[in-house]
Each structure stands twice: as C-alpha cells, then as structure tokens.
Amino acid sequence: MRNLWPSQQRRRKRNWMRSQPRGRRGERFRMRLQERRKPSFISKTCMTTRADLTSISHRMWVSVFGLQMLQISVICPRNSFMFGLDTLRGSVESGYFPSLVTCCSPAPWTVKSSCGRFTKKEDAYGHLSATAKQVRDICFNNTGSQFLSAAYDRYLKLWDSETGKCISHFTNRKVPYCVKFNPDEDKQNLFVAGMSDKKIVQWDIRTGEVVQEYDRHLGAVNTITFVDENRRFVSTSDDKSLRVWEWDIPVDFKYIAEPSMHSMPAVTLSPNSKWLACQSMDNQILIFGAQNRFRLNKKKIFKGHMVAGYACQVDFSPDMSYVVSGDADGKLNIWDWKTTKLYHRIKAHDKVCISALWHPHETSKVITCGWDGQIKLWD
C-alpha cells in the first residue's frame, strides 16, 4: 500500500467514521451535551395544612395571587413567568387560595390590583419588588399576615402580606438558603435561617438581633423542618447529613450520616407528623421517623423518578395514602404509601417539574409548578 500524506490519512479516516453507524460513544456524547444545556440552579417546595399556596421563581419579583374557585386546569398562562418557577409556599389562615410568586424576569407579567377571582389580567392582587437577585425561600407566619423572604442579595426581609410593604430586614452578610418561623404561637417573633456559611441563625424580629447560632454543619444548610410539637427541628445540608436540634440549644441532638447518603435538598413533614420525606439526590425518596429515634425506614423507599441535580419537592396526600413528587423530565409521579409502588405518572410540564403540592381540603387535586413558567391544577 502506497504512503499517504497526513492530510489524506485524516480525510480517509473522517470519511470512514461518517460511514459507520452511531455507537455508544456518540450516544454518551449527546447525552452529556443535553445535561450541559439544562439549567443549573436548584429549587424546592412545600405546603402547609391549609388551602394556601406560595410559589417562588428565579429572580426578583413577588406577586400575590387570590384564587377562590379553582375550576381551571392551568392557573398561570404559558410564559407568564418567563424563566420558570422555583418553589410553592403556603400561608396558614385564609378562606381563599393566596399564592406568592417570585418571578425571575426583570419586568414580570404586568398585573392589576385585585383581591377576587382569577382572571387573565387581574389574577394578582399585588406584586412586590423583593430583591435585586433571586428569591430562594419564603415562609408565612401562623396568621398569614406576614411572611419572610430569603434571597441571594444576602437579606432576609419581613413583608406585610396585604400591603406588600417591607417591614424590616435582617442580614449577617451571608446568603440565606432557607427560612422558617417558629410555629409556636408564643414564639412567632423568632425565626431561623439556614445560611451558606454552614450555620443556622436565629433572629428576633422585635429587636432585629441574632439571638442564637447553630454551628455544626459542614456545608450550606438547605432545609429546616420543625418536628415533635415544635420542640425540635431537623436540618439537612450539602454535607450529606441530617441533624436534629433542640430549640435554642446550639448542639445537635441527633446526627445522621452514612457513606451511602446523598444530599437531601427537599424535606417534607407528613400530615400525621410521624415521618419525614427527604428527596435524595440518588433518585430516591427516603423516609425518616420524625419522633424519637429519627431512623431511616428501609421499607419505605420510593424510586422510579430522576431528580439528580434538582430539589424537587415531595408532598403527602392529606390521608397519607399517596406520596407525590415532580422530576427532571417534567413528570408528576404518584406513589402508593403502603406498597411504595409507582401508582401513576403524568407529563405535567415541558421542563423540570420542581414542585408538587396536594390540596389539603380537596383531596383529589394536586398543584404543580415547573421551569416552563406554569402553575397547573390537576384533578
């Protein structure tokens, strides 16, 4: 065989490669490209025991919705939130269905002031310019009259739900990842926030000062959940651990960390307050006891969905019959609580279905939100 110039060799090799069928190497390369194109931010979601809802999107606006008769399948029109929604959050005391929505668009969908039914132009009765950066989390007080927002501008702000005015703000110059009021009626002036500097910081609203710090985590704190009649709270972190704290005692009461554990950026307490559902980043929902021992229930592990890299929120049905969660493919997954088998799967959104909440009163309805900028009601 005669010798070829290097350019001829490359040309011949290139032509031969093009003539070959696409193999596993090409498939892996295409899958890797698809993963790179996905958004990189993480979100979470939860709901209280009343029929109240809050949703968070990617950047800087908060809009307050008043929905009375939920007889529609799509609550928010397509592209009303241009960069998608991150979180649904619920208030406590209300006869209608309020929703707080933070929108990542610098100029969100223009709305008029309205406190009544859902309409195309008057679906929101207030929108708040919350921060210059993304809102990470929101938490209502027990009456629903005020709520706290945690944002990437490193501020925690206290808002009036009716007027939309900022009452006060708090900061320790670190990014707050989650925020929770103390649910006890006599401690509504106190709240805790999980920070990017591995600490859980406790503030007093009346004085505006830090009154306690819980400093035992080795990574940023992602979630805080009150358990055991609000005497304790559970926190999860990027250090792949779960810690249980006694209120106002800065030493962890229980520390759970196994080599096989992954980060759990979304945690939900069951309606009977006996179980914690944790969305694990190895595509599983893990169930921990929420009373004395806080052990992993190995008989209750829910699989079959893909959530690695996304903090898709978990929720329980009010009668504890089902567990629901979104996934990275935009699907709504429903499992049977007793058998842990996947009961039903619905294509809910075009992009990531980041949040799924069960309606606490109308138990046949589920609310979802996704990165396609839509909030949907399913029956």
Automatic annotation (TrEMBL):
<feature type="compositionally biased region" description="Basic residues">
    <location>
        <begin position="9"/>
        <end position="23"/>
    </location>
</feature>
<keyword id="KW-0677">Repeat</keyword>
<feature type="repeat" description="WD">
    <location>
        <begin position="314"/>
        <end position="345"/>
    </location>
</feature>
<feature type="repeat" description="WD">
    <location>
        <begin position="128"/>
        <end position="169"/>
    </location>
</feature>
<keyword id="KW-0853">WD repeat</keyword>
<dbReference type="InterPro" id="IPR001680">
    <property type="entry name" value="WD40_rpt"/>
</dbReference>
<dbReference type="InterPro" id="IPR015943">
    <property type="entry name" value="WD40/YVTN_repeat-like_dom_sf"/>
</dbReference>
<dbReference type="InterPro" id="IPR032847">
    <property type="entry name" value="PRPF17"/>
</dbReference>
<feature type="repeat" description="WD">
    <location>
        <begin position="214"/>
        <end position="246"/>
    </location>
</feature>
<keyword id="KW-0747">Spliceosome</keyword>
<dbReference type="Pfam" id="PF00400">
    <property type="entry name" value="WD40"/>
</dbReference>
<feature type="repeat" description="WD">
    <location>
        <begin position="346"/>
        <end position="379"/>
    </location>
</feature>
<keyword id="KW-0507">mRNA processing</keyword>
<keyword id="KW-0508">mRNA splicing</keyword>
<keyword id="KW-0539">Nucleus</keyword>
<feature type="region of interest" description="Disordered">
    <location>
        <begin position="1"/>
        <end position="25"/>
    </location>
</feature>
<dbReference type="GO" id="GO:0000398">
    <property type="term" value="P:mRNA splicing, via spliceosome"/>
</dbReference>
<dbReference type="InterPro" id="IPR036322">
    <property type="entry name" value="WD40_repeat_dom_sf"/>
</dbReference>
<dbReference type="GO" id="GO:0071013">
    <property type="term" value="C:catalytic step 2 spliceosome"/>
</dbReference>
<protein>
    <recommendedName>
        <fullName>Pre-mRNA-processing factor 17</fullName>
    </recommendedName>
</protein>
<dbReference type="GO" id="GO:0003729">
    <property type="term" value="F:mRNA binding"/>
</dbReference>
